[in-house]
Structure to design on (100 residues):
């Protein structure tokens, strides 16, 4: 991050699949505006040997069509070993999931 432009830092932070990285503008120091980016409605990202990470604005329904949750971010289990399906609970690390 050191020496990178504000736009580049914002771009890299937005690529973080788990949203562990965040940013905010210090408008007193950095008057630079963020580069225009297309609005992302939803994004699904497969993590290596891990969950399917969903970002966006979406609703999860059960098999009968009842709304379970309205979310902006979640991780869905791909390994089949979660104790809280369909959500990832981190068990994939313990079992050494190799679905790549
Ligand atoms: S992918 Fe994380 S618990 Fe299955």
């Amino acid at each position: 991050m050191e020496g990178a432009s504000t736009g580049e830092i914002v771009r890299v932070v937005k690529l973080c699949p788990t949203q562990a990285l965040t940013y905010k503008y210090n408008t007193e120091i950095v008057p630079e505006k963020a580069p225009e980016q297309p609005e992302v409605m939803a994004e699904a990202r497969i993590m290596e040997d891990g969950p399917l990470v969903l970002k966006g604005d979406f609703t999860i329904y059960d098999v009968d069509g009842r709304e379970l949750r309205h979310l902006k971010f979640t991780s869905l289990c791909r390994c089949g070993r979660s104790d809280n399906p369909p959500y990832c609970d981190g068990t994939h690390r313990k079992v050494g999931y190799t679905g790549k």
